């Protein structure tokens, strides 16, 4: 009986013989789309089942206090799951995928194929105030990365298949195939070419067909536009765009600061207790913060805010529109706090759903205020939908995704103009204050983010270890001219010599062959001239772990040097030459554009 390895080898040989590379990528993109769709269905169904049992039965039939208890229990289960079952940290979905693309050549560990499946449904089902879109994308990305590795595909193809997984996940969740493709291009900075477009399209189609097969025509946001766009409402959409832009800044600031506070807490148990108790208190007093919040969004779109707010702990009169507005603003204020506490406590989820939640409420509040102070009579449902697009554009830095997602889920392009106005203004305001989205904030600060800037993207993908040359002969500061010529100049084929400390290997300076050429044939100076007397300070020094490829390129440009020394932990390790750097850049550029 043939072994598994032999069968695998035969499959590879057959594939190379009969299927071209392009055809094979098309086949894999369909497979990746299907598997991402299945992952989305699994995560949604398991989460909704848990939420139905806990919130739908136990809370409503027994006691409201369960709202406080369940988030803590869920986060504790996730903690023990990560520690004893997975035995590795489960990173946030999309940020971890972006990191894998930029710094790990698109390689994602096998455990990530099921890590989010074992943790995200428990986090959200038990009341974690986060979404499932990020974990779904992360699961699909891990599957696609490992399929690519299985068939020995290169980095460019791996990254493309990860984009296909993202498109498939979003297409399956929202039944919005065009928005899903745009999401993959905007968030993962994929090149929009024929070579990438068709695989993304196939993955998106495959995923949405999978979703229709299992779910039928059911959608997360079941709404059709009833109120037409009125040109007189343009000033109000400009106001909405400004408000959602400012709210996007608030979202990013609160999220970032709370994450930094939790990063300072060393003990995961302390993080769990602090975050879990904080989340439990918020959900106990504000039940709409429980889980993803799509029920709240649908109630607002349908014009029934009282359904979303009926469980307010103060039992306020919901027939008073101003009380409704205040309570809705409170939801906006506390939602991101609840989401950040969920992440800080160790929960696994995404920020896509919280963004939609906050955006829909903002849009609804703005329309209610406009209508009730007598400025105009605008459509509350339209403003609710456009508000989602505004916050999505500002928080995720994905304005096109925001526009097409809302256009597709509403079944038409009747709101296209207000969507464009609001998304553009919100994105511009948020981008001015925060250059990077919440997904990419940490990578952006480190300069490790892949962007649509081709030069920057290629430099980010380059590996510094591959351009360091170590065939330079070192000299010590106390070596005489004669010793330098005998031990270094005669044996070396390079014209530069690093001067290092004999014991610590610390870089002290460099000696160019031109520096000693006038005296190297004068034997009377062999014992009287020493290395420390003729060495010079390097024009620039490259530090591994601190300098990025973009920094290295700038140092070469600024100094005009052809070779620059490299240090790591304050120790000399080699040189980088401009010629080798440019050759590596050219090769990487060819690799990523084929």
Task: List the defining traits of the structure above.
594 residues, mainly alpha, four-stranded mixed β-sheet, three-stranded mixed β-sheet, 65% helix, elongated
Structure write-up:
With 594 residues, the chain is mainly alpha-helical. Helices cover 65% and strands 5% of the residues. The chain contains 25 helices and seven strands. Strand 3 and strand 4 (507-512) form a beta hairpin. The longest helix has 41 residues, at 21-61. It starts with a helix and ends with a helix. The mean pLDDT is 84.
Briefly summarize what is shown.
The chain is mainly alpha-helical.
Fraction of residues in H or I helices: 55-70%
- What is the mean predicted local confidence, pLDDT? 84
Structural class: mainly alpha
Gyration radius over CA: 29 Å
Q: In total, how many beta strands?
A: 7
User: How are the strands ordered across the major sheet?
Assistant: 1-7-6-5
**How would a textbook summarize the main sheet?**
4 strands, mixed
Write down the overall geometry: elongated
Beta-strand percent range = 5-15%
Low-confidence stretches: none
How is this fold's topology laid out?
Blueprint: H1 4-18, H2 21-61, H3 66-86, H4 93-103, H5 112-125, H6 133-150, H7 155-174, H8 177-188, H9 194-215, H10 234-263, H11 268-285, H12 294-301, H13 305-309, H14 321-344, H15 352-372, H16 380-396, H17 399-409, H18 416-433, H19 441-446, H20 454-461, E1 468-469, E2 475-476, H21 481-489, E3 496-500, E4 507-512, H22 513-516, H23 531-534, E5 542-543, H24 549-559, E6 563-568, E7 571-577, H25 578-593
Parallel strand pairs: 2-3, 5-6
Antiparallel strand pairs: 1-7, 3-4, 6-7
Helix pairs in contact: 2-5, 2-6, 2-7, 2-9, 3-5, 3-11, 4-6, 5-6, 6-7, 7-8, 7-9, 8-9, 8-17, 10-14, 10-15, 10-16, 10-18, 11-14, 12-15, 14-15, 15-16, 16-17, 16-18, 17-18, 20-25
